[in-house]
Design a protein that fits this description.
The chain is an alpha+beta fold. It is built from 15 helices and twelve strands. The chain has a five-stranded mixed beta sheet with strand order 1-2-8-5-3. Strands 4-12-9 form a three-stranded antiparallel beta sheet. A hairpin with a 5-residue loop joins strand 1 and strand 2.
Amino acid sequence: MDEYKAKWASGELSCVSVFHKYATSTTRTRKRLMDVYRFVVIASSRDMARKVFNSPAFVKPCVVDVAHKLLRPTNWVFMDGRAHVDYRKGLNGLFTRQALETYLPGQEDVYEKYFAKFVEISQKENNGKPIPFMPIFRELMCAVSCRTFVGHYLADSAFKKIADDYYKITAALELVNFPIIIPFTRTYYGKKAADMVLSEFAICAAKSKARMAAGGDITCIMDGWVKSMLESEKYREKVAKGITVEDSEKPAMLLRVFSDWEISQTIFTFLFASQDATSSASTWLFQLMADRPEILDRVREENLAVRNGDRDQKFSMDILEKMTYTRAVVKETLRYRPPVIMVPYVAKKDFPVTENYTAPKGSMVIPSVWPALHDPEVYSAPDTFDPERWISGDAEKAVKNWLVFGTGPHYCLGQTYAQLNLMAMIGKASMHLDWKHHITPLSEDIKVFATIFPMVSPFLTP
């Protein structure tokens, strides 16, 4: 992390050349070295980062070269311009307040099972000894994401397999990897893992279509999207037959019927966007709460109050929206330890970033998130974890610095869902769990692996 901070401190724009050296065999006895360079421009300041985020005419999201092979080149995240805007419009309805409330029972069910599992692992399997919990948080967040995205079409037994496979996908998408898929490399194993997950989600899509066509209730994001497709198709069929249709019967957004594979690719990107980020956030949340028991006590007090003293009360949108302090804790965690510190874009053509510098076509242009969220002129004592700044301070006014979910045409669709999900998680945990963090000298240090994690996995005792 120190290397990143040094780069940001060097100026509002800096550059680096990412270098790959890979040995390939030309004969049994000879090898040749292939050198691959990638020119990278880093936008450090808030204003430079915002300029990149808001320049779709010049840049588009790129992740890394191999991403097209893992996510597939036809995936909607690689769309640009009008096609991307139109596609997003069809997804917006999946993240409304009404839609988000529909997914809550499934999320609560997952948390109940995994919190019981936490205690089982800690107290029975390890006799109360501290154990590393970061891998378990990854599985938990994969499970709650899968339940939210594909409901019960995916068996609970598949959660750990997908969580483990997604680790391989994340490893394959590191910038330093060779940009083609070579057998038995990270990209090779990442591609195999991506193929498996995509196949599973395509099967889920077929099941959802059958269930929605039969009049089933919406329980997950996939159901909501599929039902909108089917309603749009019925509307078009009536119009084609000359049947008069009242304006009130016209779907808010007319969608075509996407194939199972197209649906799978889209859900795959939802999991791609959420898995590492929420794993990071949940790991920091549990660690920060354990290290600051006075803050955890306030979270407990608030969650018991909004449940009218009944700790077993199921959460609802009304309950979540009353959790003012818990929301502040989540927002401060995302500011203090933002899961994603930089977002890679590629220049579609020469990009005049400033009056004096133009990033060449094909170069990677990366807006940074961390500096804006740790700007001492905006957030007093930025390296201090202080949820109160979101209640009695001015943090809420600093909208231009709140780059946790990006900005511009590619901002995160699920930002409200992500924050409510974390609030629900830590709120429910405060009602049913107590945990201790066994601090090490490296506990607050940061490791970067796609997102940021504690340098040492937090050893917790629930």
